[in-house]
Amino acid sequence: MMTYVVFMLTIAAIYALLAQSLVPVWGQTGMVNLGLVGFFAIGAYAAALLTKNAGWPVFIGPIAGLVAGGILGLIVTLSTLRLRDDYLAIVTLGFAEVVRIIASNEIWLTGGTDGIAGIPALFERGTGLTFHVQFMIAASVLCLAIGLLITRLVKSPWGRVLRAIRDDQTVASVAGKKTVRFKAQAFMLGASIAGLAGALYGSYTSYIAPDLFLPLITIYVFLAATAGGNTRAIGATAGAYLLVAWLEISRFIGEVIPAFSAVQVASLREIIVGLALVLVLRFAPGGLFKEKRQKAPAA
């Protein structure tokens, strides 16, 4: 039982990193990145290919995921930043599917639908609880560090420019801010964090495959960020932990209500998640942790 709890706390920390990646992109700049799971997958495959196939040191994995996510983020950014919000969302969603399809078909590189197994872990695996606790602590520390970094950036002049772009890009441009550059920086930061989360996920589970990176993950992360508050790292983190907690607790609905089949239980879980989101949006539109309006610095 304890192993299961620690496992879920580790997965929650990884989901929290994904939710935090939306703060600079969506919460602060107003760009909707529906290709989040694509950067998650890129980070996971980059780390796996270098540590498993190329034999690089294990600690390079998270760094590789971070860098790979950032590079792909820059490429996507340069090709989409001038698109309107709805088109940007569509293009990023298509990017995630392209990543998944390539991973499914390029068998020589990714193993195809069979995936990559035996990915080296950051810590020595064992049959006991030690490995899971070590990884949970590492993932939680990284989650905390990234959260503090995002909070610091949000409060900085750089963060104020992002909010100016979100509220009115034209006014920000007239004020002399290079909006394209700031949007590219925010997008790269978010993509890098998602890539780091992917590298941690592959290292922890030791196995990745295209079927693990479905658009549903992006939807879940957006739900978490919306419920917790997409403008603050603490909100995104809290939303991710609450979402994972609910998804796991709801697995036992079938035992509480034996009349429900497995398919009905799965449908009921999704319905309740959607209902909870509606209630949050109705009674706490800004999420559980609303955005704090900062005073302009004294002249």
Give an overview in words.
With 299 residues, this protein is mainly α. The chain has helices at residues 2-28, 36-53, 60-80, 85-105, 107-110, 130-155, 157-167, 169-174, 179-205, 215-228, 233-249, 253-256, 262-283, and strands at residues 116-117, 207-208. The protein has one domain. Strands 1-2 form a two-stranded antiparallel sheet. α1 runs parallel beside α6 (130-155), α1 (2-28) packs across α10 (215-228) and α10 (215-228) packs across α11 (233-249). It is globular and about 60 Å long. It starts with a helix and ends in a 16-residue tail after the last helix. The mean pLDDT is 90.
Low-confidence stretches: none
**Residue share in helix:** over 70%
Q: Tell me, rounded to a whole number, the average pLDDT.
A: 90
Number of strands: 2
Distance between the termini: 57 Å
Strand content: under 5%
Helix/strand-derived category reads mainly alpha
**Major beta-sheet overview:** 2 strands, antiparallel
Q: What order do the SSEs take from the amino end to the carboxyl end, as H and E?
A: HHHHHEHHHHEHHHH
Order of the strands making up the biggest sheet: 1-2
Topology of helices and strands:
Layout lengths: L1 H27 L7 H18 L6 H21 L4 H21 L1 H4 L5 E2 L12 H26 L1 H11 L1 H6 L4 H27 L1 E2 L6 H14 L4 H17 L3 H4 L5 H22 L16
Primary descriptors:
299 residues; globular; two-stranded antiparallel sheet; mainly alpha
Short description:
With 299 residues, this protein is mainly alpha-helical. The protein has helices at residues 2-28, 36-53, 60-80, 85-105, 107-110, 130-155, 157-167, 169-174, 179-205, 215-228, 233-249, 253-256, 262-283, and strands spanning 116-117, 207-208.
